[in-house]
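In response to the reviewer comment on reproducibility (Comment 2.3), we provide here a single inverse folding case reported in full, input and output, so that an independent group could reproduce the run without further information from us. The structure tokens appear first.
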């Protein structure tokens, strides 16, 4: 199994009514070189200007992005080529990121290669340090830019530091 750190940018709060605009993923391993980036054309007429602004794209730019089916199929192939056995989805905010990836995989591909569950990096850290108020974000090296690959890599860097610092028995 391989941990895949994922980050999503969207133009609204939920899939279906709004659209996933882009997402990035990285295999959590020492090199952090195996990455994926997808830009997806909107699937609905609805969008929240403030949400879209976080991505740095205009609505007009997003309308030129790739068809979601093409991007999700490419991601499925990438996962198959870059993960051992079943990939494990992990994110900084898996409540947000997971809902979009899961919905898009099921809607456009018929199933989700990650299965039915995800992991939250923040919750993992809070449990390890035994403090619900603690935050892992100081452990990132790569700046949090809202480019989803940068953000996924930064979160993966933090996860690697957590594994090393707390001597976790996690096989990567």
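Designed residues, in position order:
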């Amino acid at each position: 199994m391989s941990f895949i750190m994922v980050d999503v940018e969207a133009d609204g709060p939920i899939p279906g009514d709004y659209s996933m605009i882009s997402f990035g993923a990285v295999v959590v391993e020492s090199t952090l070189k195996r990455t994926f980036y997808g830009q997806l054309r909107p699937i609905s007429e609805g969008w929240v200007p403030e949400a879209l602004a976080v991505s740095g794209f205009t609505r007009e730019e997003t309308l030129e992005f790739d068809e979601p089916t093409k991007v999700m199929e490419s991601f499925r192939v990438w996962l198959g080529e870059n993960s051992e056995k079943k990939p494990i989805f992990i994110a900084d905010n898996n409540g947000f990121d997971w809902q979009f990836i899961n919905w898009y995989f099921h809607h456009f591909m018929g199933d989700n290669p990650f299965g039915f569950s995800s992991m939250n990096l923040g919750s993992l850290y809070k449990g390890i340090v035994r403090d619900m108020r603690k935050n892992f974000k100081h452990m990132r090296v790569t700046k949090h830019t809202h480019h989803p690959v940068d953000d996924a890599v930064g979160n993966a860097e933090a996860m690697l530091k957590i594994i090393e610092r707390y001597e976790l028995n996690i096989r990567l």
